[in-house]
Amino acid sequence: xxxxxxxxxxxxxxxxxxxxxxxxxxxxxxxxxxxxxxxxxxxxxxxxxxxxxxxxxxxxxxxxxxxxxxxxxxxxxxxxxxxxxxxxxxxxxxxxxxxxxxxxxxxxxxxxxxxxxxxxxxxxxxxxxxxxxxxxxxxxxxxxxxxxxxxxxxxxxxxxxxxxxxxxxxxxxxxxxxxxxxxxxxxxxxxxxxxxxxxxxxxxxxxxxxxxxxxxxxxxxxxxxxxxxxxxxxxxxxxxxxxxxxxxxxxxxxxxxxxxxxxxxxxxxxxxxxxxxxxxxxxxxxxxxxxxxxxxxxxxxxxxxxxxxxxxxxxxxxxxxxxxxxxxxxxxxxxxxxxxxxxxxxxxxxxxxxxxxxxxx
Length: 361
Prior knowledge:
Blueprint: E1 2-3, E2 24-31, E3 41-43, E4 48-56, E5 64-72, E6 80-87, E7 95-103, E8 111-119, E9 124-133, E10 148-156, E11 165-166, E12 172-182, E13 187-197, E14 204-212, E15 217-227, E16 236-244, E17 247-250, E18 253-256, H1 289-302, E19 303-304, H2 317-328, H3 336-339, H4 343-356
């Protein structure tokens, strides 16, 4: 591998490393306290609304702020600020879940509302909207049930197991959702987004689908799917924006990551090193998808030439090198750049360079 002219000084803890410039808010979903259903329409009798937020790569003590606005409510100025709630992650972690609860003891005025989310003093990274519907506040009127998302799960086509990390060669990914309290004429839609994937613009929309219901349904099971658009899915982070009647109720996440390296017999015939054995007599080492994804991200940013194909079918040189490194050092955690300057690190680098056919010129 050949270093760029400017080498990034990046501390790479493969299980928890995070770059500050990669911090982002990935999804936001409203709900009621102690209720797992995501929804965007609530009764004006409601006193507490919870906003569940998933953020990524946020450093400890970075404020995650939620600013609540009454966008269009009778008797109030447009976009009147209701309040601000702030959370701060206490430890370094790739994924952080925050839960903001806004309370209005007398219920909420009917109308449209919005919450803006930001990190620190930065710009708004994501906005989420909800609606309050006027109801009899005496509690004597009929109870109205509002539409929502009860559950969701990803899986590979032909597989029954729910999962959220897939290999680049996955033919098709399915998203099964269960909706509640659906009325005739309502719509459910999905928009598949490459949140941060190799070779793609940030938050690039890939595809979308829409379903319209022709009858009332207390429970409605819907399956959305997306097949790969090229030979392999680009490695990275993805999400699916799920909407009911055009309003986003949730944004489930999944990742594409390099999986176990294929056995040497599956690689094209070429005079390069056989699959590394780690000195244990060969065999596939269990791959940690999060570690491999972190390795690919680091190596892609620090070294050049890794996008070229390797002798391993379906893998770039970067992907093959990281698969090799994972086999050799499955428990590695630390500064990868510093490790590669040590004696053992140079030996591992040389081995994985040969495996990926990655020259050092």
